[in-house]
Amino acid sequence: MPPRAFLSTQLPLLNTPIRAKFVAVGRPVTGVLLSLMTALVVAKVFSHSQFRALVPLGFVAVLIALASRYEPIVSIVGAVLSAMVFAYFLFPPLFSLRVSEAPARDNLAWMVLSAIALSYLLFPPRKNPLR
Description:
single chain, 5 helices
């Protein structure tokens, strides 16, 4: 087994307290869960609206707000999960990931693409606080 001094130079994660490790992992997970829960609520609220095809485009604002609060990766994972939630619960055929309406399918794609682009353009990734 290598000495502890060797491990500490190779793996800076070992030098940090356990609370910092949980915060580093817990913050992005919290952001993704917040995105998922918000998508579920929005899907339920707009399920019978005539504007439901535009919901993904408006949801980009939520994803960008999450990217500003947490990290850009939260916005990306949240966009993919939200697109799946919207496809499953919002667009026909319901309870299927297949979307039969072309405008809704296009808006889902634009939501994911714009969340990726805007989150990295507006909020570049920060340095890892654990290193």
